[in-house]
Write the structure tokens for this entry.
Amino acid sequence: MTSPYLHINGIRKTFGDVVATDHVELEIGEGEFMTFLGPSGSGKSTTLYILAGFQDPTAGDIRLRGKSILQTPSHKRNIGMVFQRYTLFPHLSVGENVAFPLRVRRAPQAEIAAKVKRALSLVRLDGFEERMPANMSGGQQQRVALARALVYDPPVLLMDEPLSALDKKLREEIQYEIRRIHQQTGVTILYVTHDQEEALRLSDRIAVFNRGRIEQVGTGPELYASPATHFVADFIGDSAFLTGELAEVKDGRATLRFNDGTHLADVPMHGAGARGGKAELMLRPERIDLSDAAGPQGASLPVTVEDVTFLGNNSAVTARTGWGDPLYIRLNFGHPMMGSVGRGDKLHVRWQPQDAHVFPKA
Amino acid sequence: MLSFLTPARRGSGLGMAMPALLLLLAFFVIPVAALLSRSVTEPVPGLQNYETLLGSATYLRIFFNTFLVSGLVTLITALIAFPVAWALAIMPPRMAGVIFAVILLSMWTNLLARTYAWMVLLQQTGLVNRMLMATGIIDQPIQLTNNLVGVTIGMVYIMLPFMILPLYGVIKKIDPAILQAAALCGATKSQALRRVLLPLATPGIASGALMVFVMSLGYFVTPSLLGGTANMMLAELIVQQVQSLLNWGMGGAAAFILLVVTLALYALQLRLFEGKAR
Ligand SMILES: Nc1ncnc2c1ncn2[C@@H]1O[C@H](COP(=O)(O)OP(=O)(O)O)[C@@H](O)[C@H]1O
Ligand SMILES: [Mg+2]
């Protein structure tokens, strides 16, 4: 059995009573772009800081190419990092900032000059050597920081919300640059963000963090199509949740009973839930359809239309279930119901069996 | 628009500044002018006071002592204050608050009392000598008072707060993430100190050093109590000339030289660090 390139092995970190991360377990392949996605305070930065050596874990291990790095101090780990805040050395020029890692490693002058030039070219800042950081925009400073982190060919590059201080347009521009740089250099990247769109755009795989734990790891499409938990379903993409009671649970499939007595049988169930417990049915507005006729058992619910808003290329329909929960449906232009559907219509929402998910509710 | 640039407005601004300017005139400019004029008129008109001061070995020795002690005090103060300020900047704020209170309290304690305390500590049978002998560093008591060693020790103690406070100010402003970045870039602790921390703290070191050096140049209490009569410093000379010898001419000339050196150093500091500090 070969060991993974980078293994985050059961990391737990507590600050007094606060559990910052718990059971963080992740294997990252060489050259992979892995993103930690989660809300603020979910333990993403703490995990990165442990990798960087700024903090020691309470328990667990970090192995790079099979060897633990926990005993190695930060300055010997060789890891690259771009921070959320601007961390260029304000008293050094751009060229000297990028040269800094090579100077402290006592590299020969000729090598330093060549590598600095190449690194600045990689982030498209050719010729900026003499510029002082104070005279650059935030986006430019983060690109210099990226050049500084890559100039010594680190085995892993850590990025902790590097774009969160930038405006949306600039952010997208630099996301594109980061992708290109990842492809060009093949460096292994651990990227932290709380922005699902950013995570989906950049990553090979995403680890979704919640309250210090990883809820699910997978590619963007995997997380969207089969979320393992309510939290993941809610965090990635739009979703509606309908709460009911578990009438029956068998072989990973559930029958839900809603308040007005409506039964929904044979829906895929995630997590442990017992008969009589509460559970939620998750549906995505863009994955459900509106129709005159009911669909197959377990893939359709009767609703009453409340409101229809025409939005150009689609119409947004608000409907209510028999027990009063709202549901939103998007009808694309050209849909047979578009134009005919109106307030008060009694219709059915339908979906593909694999698009509905049931999660137990605590 | 731009009304603050019109003459009327500027005039009224000057009017408002008048009381302050008059105060400055009364308490600073007039005494200095009087001093300067006495230094070139007494006992007879001419520059002979300055010639004597700068031309005789005795007086040059006093200048040398003054600059040597001030330089040493500045250097030692900086060496002690830097780690202290660093520790204060990174320790929990509550603990730092307590230590600041102690520092301020010591600054408010009577200067003479503090200096006499050092005389006791530094004398032949004092605590310092006894401790040095107990640890075996020396086997005979060494002379720590009535010389420049005592003066330097006493003044370092007095001046420390004036170095710690500005240093703490600049160090506190340095983002810890910058030092984390330096570490990940491969810098050892000493490389991070030399290449990042010290350059970023330089404006604070400079302003602290200027303050300590200038205050030391004109310091009287500590040199007169802890220094011997054989190792006079400039302030002692001025007092001696004016009080004992009633020689206002010489005293004025020495004071004026002190003032010129101080202003020159201040101008240098402004030139080097103006704008860079923030
Ligand atoms: N140095 C620290 N001292 C105390 N608590 C901390 C410290 N660092 C992080 N925490 C706590 O640990 C949790 C996770 O924080 P963090 O890893 O920064 O989250 P994220 O980066 O996902 O926003 C938070 O509750 C935070 O308050
Ligand atoms: Mg964070």
